[in-house]
Amino acid sequence: MHNIICPNMVYGQTMMMGHGHHAVHMLVKSLMPELEAYWPSLYCTSSKRCFGGKGPIWAHEWEKHGTCSYPVIQDEYDYFATTLNLYTKYNVTRILKNAGIDALNGEKYLLSDVVSAIKKDFGATPLLVCKKGSVQELRICFYKDFKPRDCVSGLSSNATDDITKSSSSCPTYINLPTYKPLEYIPSKVCKQVELRF
């Protein structure tokens, strides 16, 4: 899960108040079980992998994306709690499964079927980013009140054109892959843990 909640970016306003990964960890301690289950933070072994610093991805998410959501979101706790609530409320895996699309079976699915299933449930068009025929990112966009909105602008009257424009890096048939992170933060020993789409 890579959530970006940045409602003020529409107006070009940002607020930067980075606390570093230790402070973020302390402020969201009560959310740790949910964060570890639904948004596991990977331990980074190089500056390149960690966007310029070493440490958990949660600090990066807050510093890069969370701080720009002020004043709608007041602090780190509010940012991560809101992100987890949105993840639960708009559960893409459940929606796809209900539409007969199982992200875990390795099958290829029509891009239009994936987009249509999400659009039908959310009332908004997602944006998919693919690499080598597999979905790398599935973006769901929100208004400042956290209601879904189309991730694309200037939608045509033709649904097929909308899907093509919103997901131009994706082929007609796509894979919905599972990911294996290098290591969970709580772990002292490197292990392979599957994250499921």
UniProtKB/TrEMBL annotation:
The family this protein is said to belong to: Belongs to the RNase T2 family.
GO MF annotation list: ribonuclease T2 activity; RNA binding
Q: Which organism is it from?
A: Carex littledalei
An example GO CC term for this entry is: extracellular region
What's this protein's name? Answer: Ribonuclease 2
Looking up Pfam families in the UniProt record yields: Ribonuclease_T2 (PF00445)
* Gene3D superfamilies, A to Z: Ribonuclease T2-like (3.90.730.10)
GO BP annotations, alphabetical order: RNA catabolic process
The record's section on InterPro entries has:
RNase_T2-like, RNase_T2-like_sf, RNase_T2_His_AS_2
